[in-house]
Specification:
- This protein is of the alpha/beta class.
- It folds into two domains: 179 residues, 3-Layer(bba) Sandwich (FAD/NAD(P)-binding domain); 219 residues, FAD/NAD(P)-binding domain (3-Layer(bba) Sandwich), CATH 3.50.50.100.
- It contains ten helices and 30 strands.
- Helix 5 links the parallel strand 11 and strand 12.
- The relative contact order is 0.15.
Amino acid sequence: MKRQSNKPKVVIIGGGFGGLNAAKALGNKDVEVILIDRKNHHTFQPLLYQVATAVLSPGEIALPIRRALHRYKNVEVVLGEVAGFDLEQKNVHLSDGAQIPFDYLIVAAGARHCYFGRDEWEAEAPGLKTIEDALEIRRRVLLAFELAERKAVITGKPEPVVFAVVGGGPTGVELAGAIAGIARETLAEDFKLIDTRNARVLLFEHSPNVLATFAESLSQKAERHLRELGVEVFTHSLVKEIEPGRIKVGEEWIKCDVTLWGTGVSASPLGKALGAELVGRASKVRVRADLSIPNHQNIFVIGDMAFFEDENGVVPGVATAAMQQATCAARNILRDLKRESRQAFKYVNKGSMATIGRHKAIAQIGNWRFSGFVAWLVWMLVHVVSLIDPHHRRLVLREWLWSYFTNQRGVRLITGSVRSGTTEARL
């Protein structure tokens, strides 16, 4: 690929929170920016679980990257998958053989769910990181009830549907609470032979508490809220095997119709391609104070891929951290061009929140700790405001209000093949 100008070229990999905000921070500045992503849209990941549980549609939480950056005349978007780098020649290699040169590189390729060496589990226990993941989970959840009704029609023996959620972090807790809400409220009057309220939602967490990164008092409240919703919470419970129709917890096999994965993340394998030091099971790239990697001052790693530790500990892989790192990396590039010294990254913790079910949530903001309806209301307002597109804010708020007052979910569509896990249902 030939240079379009003599301006310094900044290549950004990834259109998530980090990459998108880096592009905005460099927008309309005296640099040429190219953002590369294998998808044409930015996904608001904190609301993916609401797509997975039929509250929202994909178009309400995803925005074309070009649309998000259309105001910035110096930013170009390239649809492609990065295969590797030539750091000495300063080229990014795409999977189709194309090469894109750079003067500065910002790598924000994110992370995927990690199965701790058991990648074969993914077929039976999908995780939740992309729109495609959310649609697959939605399909399996809704299909499980349909197959239970079908079996009751054929055999005359209704049986409760069993869901197993592995992992008691925010993703697992949000999925478990939402599925319990679907079973006990949304679908309660839609089936004739099965009683969806009898569905079992099992949540397994290896550590002593769910939402272990929160204060212990909030963690305990979250577990209580889950139990009030009907979720069966099992702590100190390690899932050892996952097979079609069952999982092994400790030494016990447990039958389940749907298994979902809500634990463990692994940084993009592009970190290894950079030749940098990788840290921990998540294989994050250790970065310096200015977010660059050793021996390559012109290469920055941010977001879920970056391992950054300050006096307060390791910076978490959350959206607010990625956005702050994006701003810092972009500013340091601009400071280089002005021949000014770089600034060290300083993370500002803006708090943590997790929703558990209908009007139930927990929030931890500075020294404030609160839960229940107030926390849910704060969670709702923060997420609406954080959506990039004003039109999306209106759509999401409308869907939430309709769902709140009617106990219904507007996107209960089963798409794709009619199968649950690897077991095909021949209708």
